Amino acid sequence: MYKVVIIGGGWSGCAAALAARKAGAEVTLLEKTDMLLGLGNVGGIMRNNGRFTAAEENIALGARELFDITDRCSRHVNIDFPGHKHASLYDVMKVEPNVRRLLREKGVDVRLMARAVDVVLQKSGRGVCGSGIGDPGETHRSNTGWGEVPSSSNGYKSGATKHPGETRRRNTELFDNGDMQDAVIEKLILAGNPAGIGGDSEQTIEGDVFVETTGSTGPMGNCLTYGNGCCMCVLRCPAFGPRVSISARAGGSDIMGRRRDGSFGAFSGSGKLEKGSLSAEIQKKLNEEGVAVIPLPHAAVKKEKLDMKVCKQYALQEFAENIVLLDTGYAKIMTPFFDLETLRQIPGFENARYADPYAGGKGNSIRYLSVAERDNTMRVMKIRNLFCGGEKSGLFVGHTEAISTGSLAGHNAVRYLKGMRPLELPAGIAIGDLIAYANKSLESEDGLMTRYTFSGAEYFQRMKDKGFYSTDPDEIRQRIRRFGLENIYDDRLL
């Protein structure tokens, strides 16, 4: 049986694994930590604004399983908060075990504490140190072990040469999957177990095709250089090792997102407070209504924080003038960071304590420093058998966006094995339009400063302008059906 190897177990990696498995491949999923879902363990917001449309498009395409779980684990449904309508809030403490069980029930080989650090190429040999550009602050192999190299902004491309694919509906047409000069990954090199369990010897894993969904946050060097230091977020780089860009190691070129001031990356847009550390009144409001909006005293209003937020759909005046809390099991605080001493001066927050990141009063992790150049089928440029999804595939925000890109990447990984033309979702549906639009936008400097999400900001407006936005599942399914794509992710290809 052909083997698909997924690198990264966030929402996108899990979606890719499910899609590839349903298409008939043997699937191994590598996750460097001891938990799946990554930043999904901090999130919790689904179906808000255009994400409702995108969720129903995914379901109609056949990628329903993960949305079934988040719907089932929702603490609140159909709630409104500033700038957002009809949101669902899933319990971040319940979702991950359900996803882990689902993957294993479907036959996915889930390997935790398995960190890919390098590649072996079929033609060029081992792709270490110089085969690709790497990450700023990325760790590289050295004689003394894994040490961080100085961050650099040099050599990162701001655009990609695109090779648009063509949509084919359930065809079996054989297809040349890339330039014969493209690199081909033969196997991955895994680091020794960071926990010291089972020895620390280096391992390898072979595959026929690979999907990288490693995200764009970490390693520590990036958060130190471009942020306020390592805040010990849910990714826990010090404990499980830094993220490594497989696309760069294999010879691809990564893209770095920018902020409006020209600096690289962006602050992660929220944190979690221990709900029990808040006043009984705030806890009651969160438990009953799902959202609490607490006005800030004038001295605590920091409008400049709006420019820091990676999630531009939350860069609204209301998020500067109020503390906006959402009930995801914890109290999700919608701000890049909030000084703890100042926070505790506000009634109801006298005993407030951050749950994630632990240094939430000082800073959050830095994202968007390692985006692979790709085409609209999610294949990575210059690497014949590597696909990508999630933040690795663009300046995307959100779990729905991660599932959307990951599902397509996993499905197309199997089409690659079959020799079929890869599926490019049409621009007549929201998911296809987002994937193409975000990719094209990277060719401009302004595009590097834009974040793309179904839930707000520039792209949600585009959804409405193009007539994509709908909260009617039947209407959305009819749209998918018109393109001949209903349940296409359920097709067994191998």
CATH superfamily of the largest domain: FAD/NAD(P)-binding domain
CATH architecture of the largest domain: 3-Layer(bba) Sandwich
Overall pLDDT confidence? 87
CATH class of the largest domain: Alpha Beta
The third-level CATH topology of the largest domain is: FAD/NAD(P)-binding domain
How many helices? The count is 15
Can you tell me the number of structural domains? 2
The beta-strand count equals 23
Question: Could you give the order of strands across the largest sheet?
Answer: 6-2-1-13-23
Overall, the morphology is globular
Instruction: Work out the radius of gyration.
Output: 21 Å
Largest sheet: 5 strands, parallel
Which regions are unreliable across 5 or more consecutive residues at pLDDT < 50?
124-134, 137-172, 194-199
What structural class do helix, strand and pairing data support?
alpha+beta
- How much strand content do the residues show? 15-25%
Question: Helix share of residues?
Answer: 25-40%
Distance between the termini: 8 Å
Could you characterize the architecture of this molecule?
This protein is of the alpha+beta class and 494 residues long. It folds into 2 domains: 3-264 and 375-490, FAD/NAD(P)-binding domain (3-Layer(bba) Sandwich); 268-356, no CATH class. The protein is 27% helix and 19% strand. The protein contains 15 helices and 23 strands. Strand 9 and strand 10 (145-148) form a beta hairpin. The termini are close together. Residues 124-134, 137-172 and 194-199 have low confidence and may be disordered.
Task: Put the structure in a nutshell.
With 494 residues, this protein is α+β, with helices and mostly antiparallel strands. It has helices spanning 11-22, 50-61, 65-72, 95-105, 220-226, 237-240, 246-249, 280-289, 317-321, 340-343, 399-418, 430-441, 445-448, 457-465, 473-482, and strands at 3-7, 26-31, 45-46, 74-81, 84-90, 109-112, 116-121, 125-126, 139-142, 145-148, 185-190, 203-206, 209-212, 254-255, 266-267, 271-273, 291-295, 322-327, 331-333, 354-356, 366-367, 371-372, 386-388.
